[in-house]
Design brief:
The chain is α/β, with parallel strands linked by helices. The protein has 4 domains: 207 residues, 3-Layer(aba) Sandwich (Rossmann fold), CATH 3.40.50; 184 residues, Glycogen Phosphorylase B (Rossmann fold); 130 residues; 108 residues, Transferase(Phosphotransferase), domain 1 (Orthogonal Bundle). Helices cover 40% and strands 18% of the residues. The longest helix has 23 residues. It is elongated and about 110 Å long. The two termini are 55 Å apart. The mean pLDDT is 91. Belongs to the glycosyltransferase group 1 family. Glycosyltransferase 30 subfamily. It is an enzyme of class 2 (transferase). Catalyzes the ATP-dependent phosphorylation of the 3-deoxy-D-manno-octulosonic acid (Kdo) residue in Kdo-lipid IV(A) at the 4-OH position. Pathway: Bacterial outer membrane biogenesis; LPS core biosynthesis. One of its GO terms (molecular function) is ATP binding.
């Protein structure tokens, strides 16, 4: 991404809001939820750390419906957030999925808005439908090491030329994408030509071939057919400049088929009223939103509701797919194919050129260039049911072998997520509490059903005689007894020279990425991966007067565990214990977890000899690199440092590098069996 892009996108923001305001004159929904356009809203805790799926508009949302349903089934432990760019897509998503997913607008692609969005939502995976690629989104996801999958991706020759032409502006966006599931081989080759690594692109087919018409919709369509008992044509997803031609064609059709009904479905909701008024000039019209029954006197039904297009295709005998009598590029013909409806289209179908080419090759579509030809096509197909059946059968046979894209794209998702069987939905019971601005708590409502703000006060626990011990390091951490739940209360302090001047204030940053909340969130992910880390119970963010913030965290005590430093003050560790410590560190590194302060105080062994790793302040996921070796070297220095300190103090620290370090490395390298077994 270039400086020019960052500058231009920021300049564009005011004009985008002007556009939304102007468009809101006809469609008031464009004037709503503006805070979401800049990622200024808050998300519930339960939306964090899940899967983000972006469907820019209605078409992508409909195409992805089955795919999203499968993800919801396969990953019930994870929240799914569905984003869009248009009110119609947002409304449709809410209608299709309800409260099973979280809904939001994808923010405008400024660096600040995308950073806020990802910091608040912290998705573990981003899935983009088709080719809605925004440089700041991709860059932010890559910076936070969040995989980005582009699925059902199509790239026309025209779009590829545009990406190539403006590469100087958007920068090397392809290096930020983890995987592309292309619809076709030509699209795959265009992605590779633009710079996407060949081993990260595969042809997976088109989700739109996997349309499944529900039994409920079929029954509803059958009821309509029984009620109407007349020929029905549908003109779907129509645009300005096209409706007049369609109504003219329908007027000609009525001279031959006077009992025919036209279902007219404009593409954009803000045009519903305009199209209704246009139809009323010539015909007797009823609107779907009025809920009036369609009678024999009605000639036109305006489909002015969202999410019912498949129903109208199923009801109709013949379908005209809009956006094609004008140079819009046409819309998806696979929807009427899925409902076994004969297809008619205008000549401008470059958005779906390959699909229309295949339909034309097998005689499964009629292409018309003007109103008179459209009227003739409608009349012919209504008068010849056998021809309709032949077209429907040809279309079905042509695309039967293309089904299965949903299943294979799910394997791509699985490759970028832990196995669904290993995931434990740790955020399900998490709550956030914000008594006042600048003060926020996150807590596990299941583990701490009686949580209150005083849980972060050591004095509160001392007054109840619940403080059972403390650990010293940079500062004191308190061991607290609370029912069956032992807890460790830790306040965050500054270290080094800065800590002498500023004890515990940190530079102001978003609450979601502050020290305690970041460690809290990371521990949740690590536990879902089955790593040997403590359970986080609660985190606190408090804005400090004047400047900065302070933070605290509560984590569960690991029963019977002592840190390695304490153990080595008393006696040497056994070979199996060293091996398990090395193996635990290896587990972290295999999951690409960087521990910022790996030392003998943060390694623990419980009564059963199991190794644990604690204190994940300032830790994170990282791509494999030299930091893994640096982690080990830091740990080695900590052992030798404690030996030296013990010698200076005249005490004993039971560590010998020549004896103990190879045992730990053997566990890390896992080049032999656990000594406890052998």
């Amino acid at each position: 991404m270039t400086l020019w892009y960052r500058v231009l996108i920021c300049i564009a923001v005011p004009f985008v809001f002007i556009y939304l305001w102007l468009r809101g004159r006809k469609a008031p929904a464009y004037r709503q939820h503006w805070r979401q356009r800049l990622a200024l809203q808050s998300f519930p805790m339960q939306a964090r750390d899940g899967i983000l799926i972006h469907c820019v508009s209605v078409g992508e949302t409909i195409a992805a419906r089955g795919f999203i349903e499968r993800i919801l089934q396969q990953y019930p432990q994870l929240p799914v957030t569905l984003t869009s760019m248009t009110p119609t897509a947002r409304s449709l998503a809410q209608q299709l999925f309800g409260e099973r997913v979280f809904h939001a607008y994808l923010p405008l692609d400024t660096a600040g808005a995308m950073r806020r969005f990802f910091n608040k939502l912290v998705p573990r995976l981003v899935i983009i439908l088709e080719t809605e690629l925004w440089p700041n989104l991709l860059r932010t996801a890559d910076h936070q090491q969040i995989p980005v999958l582009v699925v059902n991706a199509r790239l026309s020759e025209r779009s590829a030329k545009s990406y190539q032409k403006y590469a100087w502006l958007i920068g090397p966006i392809w290096q930020h994408i983890s995987w592309i599931a292309a619809q076709t081989e030509p699209s795959q080759q265009r992605f590779i030509h633009l710079g996407m690594p060949a081993d990260k692109v595969a042809v997976r087919g088109n989700l739109k071939f996997d349309f499944q018409i529900s039994e409920a919709l079929q029954q509803q369509a059958q009821q309509w057919g029984t009620q109407l008992q007349r020929p029905v044509v549908v003109a779907a997803s129509t645009h300005e400049g096209e409706d007049e031609q369609i109504l003219d064609a329908f007027a000609q059709l009525l001279t031959q088929q006077p009992d025919c009904l036209l279902i007219l479905v404009p593409r954009h909701p803000e045009r519903f009223q305009t199209v209704t008024q246009l139809a009323q000039r010539q015909f007797k019209v009823v609107t779907r939103s009025s809920q009036q029954q369609v009678t024999a006197q009605h000639q036109v039904l305006v489909g002015d509701t969202m999410g019912e297009l498949l129903l109208w295709y199923q009801v109709a005998d013949v379908a005209f797919v809009g956006g094609s009598l004008i140079e819009r590029g046409g819309h998806n013909p696979l929807e009427p194919v899925a409902t076994s409806t004969a297809v008619v289209s205008g000549p401008h179908v470059f958005n779906f050129a390959e699909i229309f080419s295949r339909l034309e090759a097998v005689g499964a579509v009629k292409l018309v260039t003007h109103a008179e030809a459209l009227a003739q096509a409608w009349q012919q197909l209504i008068a010849q049911p056998q021809l309709r059946e032949q077209m429907v059968a040809a279309a079905s046979a042509e695309f039967a072998r293309d089904q299965g894209a949903t299943a294979v794209m799910l394997t791509d998702v699985e490759a970028h997520l832990p196995p669904s069987t290993s995931l434990v939905r740790t955020l399900t019971m998490m709550q956030r509490l914000s008594p006042k601005p600048g003060l926020e708590y996150w807590y596990d409502a299941q583990a701490l059903p009686d949580f209150n703000a005083e849980f972060f006060s050591a004095d509160y626990w001392a007054q109840q005689n619940k403080v059972k011990g403390s650990a010293t390091g940079r500062a004191t951490a308190w061991f607290i007894e609370h029912g069956e739940q032992g807890m460790l209360l830790r306040h965050y302090y500054r270290g080094g020279l800065v800590g002498k001047l500023n004890k515990d204030r940190f530079k102001r940053e978003p609450i979601e990425t502050s020290r305690a909340m970041a460690e809290f969130s990371l521990l949740l992910k690590l536990r879902e991966l089955g790593l040997p880390v403590p359970q986080p119970l609660a985190a606190k963010f408090e804005r400090a007067p004047g400047w900065g913030y302070r933070a605290d965290i509560l984590v569960a005590i690991i029963p019977g565990a002592k840190d390695v430093f304490q153990r080595l003050q008393q006696a040497s560790l056994t070979a199996p214990e060293w091996y398990r410590l090395g193996a635990a560190i290896k587990q972290l590194h295999q999951q690409q977890v960087y521990h910022s302060d790996l030392n003998c105080h943060n390694l623990m062994l419980d009564n059963a000899g199991k190794a644990w790793i604690v204190d994940f302040d300032k830790c994170e996921f990282r791509q494999p690199g030299e930091w893994q070796q640096a982690n080990l070297e830091r740990l080695l220095r900590s052992f030798n440092k404690e030996v030296k300190k013990a010698e200076e103090a005249g005490s004993v620290f039971h560590w010998q590098q020549a004896r103990d370090w190879p045992l730990l490395l053997a566990g890390y390298q896992q080049d032999q069996e656990d000594p406890a077994v052998t």
